[in-house]
Amino acid sequence: MRLDRFLSEAGAGTRSEVKQFIRKGLVSVNGSIIKEAGSQVAEEEDVVCLKGQPLSFSKYHYYMLHKPAGVVTATMDSRQKTVMDLVSDIPVKGLFPVGRLDKDTEGLLLLTDDGVLAHELLSPKKHVDKTYLAEIREPLSLEAVSALRQGVDIGEKKKTEPAKVELLEEKRILLTIQEGRYHQIKRMLKAVENEVLYLKRLSMGSLTLDENLMKGEYRPLKESEIEALKKEYVHDAKRESAEEKTAGI
Ligand code: URA
User: Fold this and answer.
1) Which of 98, 133, 136, 150 is spaced 20 to 30 A from 247 at the CA atom?
2) Chain-centre distance for alpha carbon 39
3) Is 44 exposed, middle or buried (0-12, 13-18, 19+ CB in 10 A)?
4) How many other CB atoms are found less than 10 A from the CB of residue 82?
């Protein structure tokens, strides 16, 4: 396969953008800088790097970010720092965050360019567990625990679905919910006359925040993590039909 095609299919940019990268000497194959866009690479064997970072030839890309507080979950914002600013050196176009964490919430955020997986993970029908660590203003009363477990009124038509509640310490709890309503955890605690002082997402479905990632750091998902998410949530027939729709077939 031509080097420029490899790069653009690996998500590094459009064909003309990657040709510029090659011309500028930013691309190496097996450790040697290559300046010919048309030179041939063996996609399964050669190690192709852009700006020193190895690219893998896969159609879709998946990263976990340890979101710090103080950045907004958006692809663009004219005034505030976004999660995409934290991953700007990933040489993949079209990444977006799967779901949203509030500006002051920390923790696991999945970034991908796989629209089908993102759609499935966010679909209420899929009942994907999301577990949060919350530090709260006051210890939870037994009534509050039972209300959260049954579902609480957060001022919408429907109560929240039952949540899992685990008490870690007096004012530290784990809450697992399957929905993703706006400010949901904060509003659930408010509904039981309490308040979230600190919030961190620990997991989403089978994906758990890597403890070795410092706030603001990210890493690509391991093959096993990608496979586990897909196995749980994406049926190939669904992917094929969604991709056919996108391609206008
Ligand atoms: N619930 C919230 O209140 N905030 C988040 O960021 C995520 C869940």
Assistant:
1) 98
2) 34
3) exposed
4) 16
- Which ligand 1 atom is at minimum distance from the Cα of 177? 8
Cα(210) to centroid(ligand 1), Å? 19
**More reliable by pLDDT, 95 or 89:** 95
Q: Specify the pairing of strand 32-33 against strand 53-54.
A: unpaired
Is 153 marked active-site? Answer: no
Grade residue 15 by pLDDT with cuts at 50, 70 and 90.
Answer: confident
**Which protein residue's CA is at the shortest distance from atom 2 of ligand 1?**
183
Say how many Å lie between the CA of residue 95 and the centre of ligand 1.
21
Which residue out of 122, 176, 184 has the highest number of ligand 1 atoms within 8 Å of its CB and is therefore the one to mutate? 184
Active-site residue identified among 102, 104, 113, 210: 102
Question: Tokens for 131?
Answer: 């577990």
Q: What is the pLDDT of residue 189?
A: 98
Nearest CA to ligand 1 atom 7: 101
CA 43 to chain centre: 26
Match 């196995």 to its residue by tokens: 231
Tokens of 68: 């710090």
Look at residue 244 and tell me whether its pLDDT is greater than 80: no
DSSP 147: H
pLDDT of residue 239 exceeding 80 = no
Better pLDDT: 55 or 9: 55
Instruction: Looking at the CA of residue 180, tell me the nearest atom of ligand 1.
Output: 8
- Please, what is the average pLDDT of the chain? 92
